[in-house]
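Dear all,

This email documents one entry for the complex benchmark we are building for the journal club exercise. For each entry we list the sequence lines for every component of the assembly. Then comes the predicted three-dimensional structure of the complex as a token string, followed by one or two observations. Please use this as the template for your own entries, and keep the labels exactly as they appear.
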Amino acid sequence: MHHHAPAPSAEEIRDVVLPLTGLEGPLLPMLHAIQEVWGHVPQAAVPVLADVLNLGRAEVHGVISFYHDFRDHPAGRRVLKICRAEACQSVGGAGVAAETLARLGVDWHGTTPDGGVTVEPVYCLGLCACGPAAMLDGRVIGRVDADRLTAELEAAR
Amino acid sequence: MKDFIIPQFAPGAEPFDDRDMGTPARSGAPVSLTIDGFEVTVPEGTSVMRAAFEAGIEVPKLCASDNMEAFGSCRLCVVEIEGRRGTPASCTTPVTEGMVVHTQSSKVRKIRKGVMELYISDHPLDCLTCAANGDCELQDAAGQVGLRDVRYTPGDNHFDPKGIGARSQSEARLREGPGNPQYLPKDDSNPYFTYDPSKCIVCSRCVRACEEVQGTFALTIEGRGFDSRVSAGAGFDDFLSSDCVSCGACVQACPTATLQEKSVAELGTPTRCVITTCAYCGVGCSFKAEMNGDQLVRMVPWRHGKANRGHSCVKGRFAYGYASHKDRILNPMIRDTIDEPWREVSWDEALSFAATRMKAIQQKHGRRSVGVITSSRCTNEETYLVQKLTRAVFGNNNTDTCARVCHSPTGYGLGKTFGTSAGTQDFDSVEHTDVVLIIGANPTDGHPVFASRLKKRLRQGAKLIVVDPRRTDIVRSAHVEAAHHLPLRPGTNVAVVSALAHVIVTEGLMDEAYIREACDWDEFQHYAEFIGDPRHSPEAVEGVTGVPAAELRAAARLFATGGNGAIYYGLGVTEHSQGSTTVMAIANLAMLTGNIGRPGVGVNPLRGQNNVQGACDMGSFPHELPGYRHVKLPDVRAIFEKAWGVEIDPEPGLRIPNMLDAAVEGTFKGLYCQGEDILQSDPDTHHVAAGLKAMECVIVHDLFLNETANYAHVFLPGSSFLEKDGTFTNAERRINRVRKVMQPRNGYEDWEITQMLANAMGAGWRYTHPAQIMEEISSTTPSFTGVSYERLEELGSVQWPCDENAPEGTPIMHVNGFQAGRGRFIITEYVATEERTGPRFPLLLTTGRILSQYNVGAQTRRTENTVWHEEDVLEIHPHDAEVRGVTEGDWVRLASRTGETTLRAVLTDRVSPGVVYTTFHHPATQANVVTTDFSDWATNCPEYKVTAVQVSPSNGPSDWQERYNEQAERSRRILSAAE
């Protein structure tokens, strides 16, 4: 993930989304592009997207807020997602999550004080056969425990 | 919201069924089915829910409403259908032939109860103290499903502000607690309604109403699952800062008190309702005035109203507070000279003072030295009486009306080409349009309810062409985008419309069969030769109009070949030195393309005020008796001479500008002006002021001491539209009833006051109800022969012509050829206005209006609509601003050859470089100090839309503004009767 200045101007946002206007259903790709560049979807993007796509501001806001993956402020340098769905819970996922959160000293959606890691819940990564499962910066990891996750985070630091 | 059984209006008539049928009506082939053992036949495509309502069976519902498409989210309307598995939602299930439906069974009862239990588990139990108590669909539905218990223990919820497990907010108020992050406080930023998230059941009706009915897309559901909430605008918005235009559709749609009128919260739920007609713009929306005794609780658009089909805008829905504003004058007043303070006197004294003065003036200066101005805001009956006053009592034809300054070119232009001075369609017609051409109209601001209907059609795929110097909202706003916007230089309408016709004729795109059948072919040949000349080509006029030739050609081709083409236009067409010419050019364009005489086409003038059409119909013009018949014609005069028992002056009278000129010259001395503020609304304010000042008796009949009253000697307090009976005729020629919902606060209805004035001058009129005035109108005016109050009660409303050929009225005109014979093509040569830019005045000023304000603002300025628009501002292109050192919000001096004023600047690229724009809603700005006395060649309609101006930085109000305000202040002093 690239980390630019967290408060892009309307012009900068426009430059990022304009090449995508030709797509079918361009709003989601545009939101992904914005989050890709700035690590989050700033509020300043709402009027820009409404104008570019000729939508109401409310509609854009409705879409952004529907998807938990679109953040309104930047995450930590790494994002760890731990699965809380049934299959992983049945093989100890809840314990792994609790232990990991405790070690990092954060709650769900929290970011460590050094800005190193943000931890988020996820509901099924499709790895039910090798749960408990987690995902670090988009890379899935199977059969995790708290130690494995700590090691992964250390290695990635 | 609240469903009333509306009492029948006419004796013996059926009461109106005001129920919400759940889903929209359909118009397919008949389908028969059985619901709970009752056979019912409905059109194909109808939902099971609506079919049940048709059979008299109500299925419980929360998310369904018949003005929006079914949504299927509340799951309360589930039914069982024989032969089908499960329990489908009746709102989203269309009927099929032979279907057998059960709306009540132990299975669906159990499901409904369970659903209701979940809803109520997250809803405060504050019914008795809730503003929607007695008017709540959630309450009704809980009753219908027999909810007797909520078994869920208090848990996460959205309504308990303290987080203490309270079941009601009244309980929570008394205790302390840790708080509840899910609880959001009320948003009361909108002046007319509140949004209380704690009462929301997230049925999405408000969001859907905003999208489907109003077309603004200001609302959304934010978040998902338990976090779902209604949100206005983006996360940083409240209702006021969002795109919300306060049309009220969401409030009307809300089944709970989540979106609630503040007036209902304050006054309680209404107990009776009267159907009446809005007194704002020419759309003429039907409303239910919902009352408690003589207290107006709220205005709700009426679903059976044929102009608005259940929709409204911020003005009609909410801005009625002016009728009870403290500025309203309730007692008659007189004064000898305009420098004196007003003296409150009895009606008798005021009327005899007025009558004595008028008679004395006529004795000294002649019969023709006095006159009247009728109002497009008053009823047909009132207007008829005012013109009758001058013709039958004063003995001259000095009557004119505010239509002089707005749509007089429409009357002239359409009369010359089509033979009738009126728009050709009804508003429903827009639902059949494929290409809409809007010229010089800003419907989202000026005619918002029509704009919503238009936007709906555009979202269905109709194409749009806009001819306007400004990029108005209809050019581009959420889900609407014009195929072509032709941003012409103000004053070049004729060149642009003629160029459109040139392309159609030279490229052979005209509808020759139609022209041969309905129009004068020889005249057309002549016209085609004229319009085909290369000087009318888009390329030739581009230099003058500023419209790119290729864009104009594309627009012409689209209009000629895109299917049903409809033209809608406004004052941007008429208020020019060539206003009448443009109207005729528009008529030519419609005839050329065969777009006349069926749904979806036509020429549609959007009328500014509620009764512009009616005021013109009623003989307000100095040369025409009611029904547009020239006063010179002896047989026409004979009709009225017989009815009125007087001799009528065969000489046409004075128009408003002529009256003022004659006043300045000293030959016109007395004026009775009803419901119009000529000082603020007419061009060249200095000249109007000079004319009024020169008169010896100015009688102003109005709700307020308006600007004209500063120069008046007699003030007769008027009644509001809520306080009188009568009729308004809207832009589609629809005659709508205005009904008295309360007694006149000033003591008399306006028609009574005119009658008293006439009688004070010796007329001896004896009308006891406006219905008798309408009888007189229909007995003297051919297109009204079938109109009577009884007929209006039966039909709800009727569009003239209404006579023996069309007993139910005429929704669409010229269906089988033109009424008056053949359509006439008239040569439309472009002649530039004499108002030219030059080194001293390099910019062109054009004027207009804004959604929240109405005309001179006499009404809307006295409501909370000022939240949206507290002053007139000058829109200027950033480039023009920069070279003048003007920045956003600066005071600027706006000067023309006529005068100057000051106002604040707003920088926007809505206007092109070289063009500036302002509104004329506020007397403090007096935009018409700047406008000139140039006017339409045929009708004298002022050229408001083109003034050469200069803009420069300024420190504050101009000398004129200060002097004027001082004079106005002095002039408004009132001594009470005791002094």
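Observations: The first strand of chain A starts at residue 78 and ends at 83. Chain A has two domains: 10-66, 78-156.
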